[in-house]
Amino acid sequence: MLTERQQATYQFIHDYHLRRGCAPKLTEIADGIGISSKGVVHRYLKAIAEEGLIELLPGRHRGIRIAEYPESLAAESILPLVGKIAAGQPIEAIPDHNTFDLSAFFLGPNRFVLKIQGDSMIDAGILEGDMVVVEQRDNARNGDIVVALIDKDEATLKYLQQNKDGTVTLLPANQTMQPMNYSADRVQIQGVVVGQMRSYDTRKYGSTGNR
To answer: Taking the model in full, what pTM does it have?
Structure first.
């Protein structure tokens, strides 16, 4: 069982990862939980790792990895796949009785979830409140939707364009917004979007759930 301070440390790491797409440094954890000793932070991290909530990666910059979902959740991530439905012209409904494993679709090594704030990617179908699944990487191809850390301070979700002159352009998917250009050394790729989730609350739209 974690102490109250250890729980606060884990919560800080978890929330930091959601905001920034990477693990915090020891000094950032210390500042975040209101202490000055990195040694105390390290002891907290060892205790959290012993509980299986994180994995410590010696020799790695920001060497903290949040543990994968436990195997006991696997069965709860499987839904019935009952057939296909047209998004264009109507087609005959063909019943099916397979299952669809959400964990296989979304989960994987070095993946994490970010909640979208803002409307800079609406033309890509990524709306405020959506959840995107990100595969943690330090490189990407032109056209990928990436989590980019700018000046080691601010993270943003944008299309990536690496220019021949060595600069990087981060492209919004919103016609009212302008591309952002940076020198390559100012932009650090944190990950690439590999999936997206959105929840529709049918109570907002009546009994049929139409929108």
So the answer is: 0.56
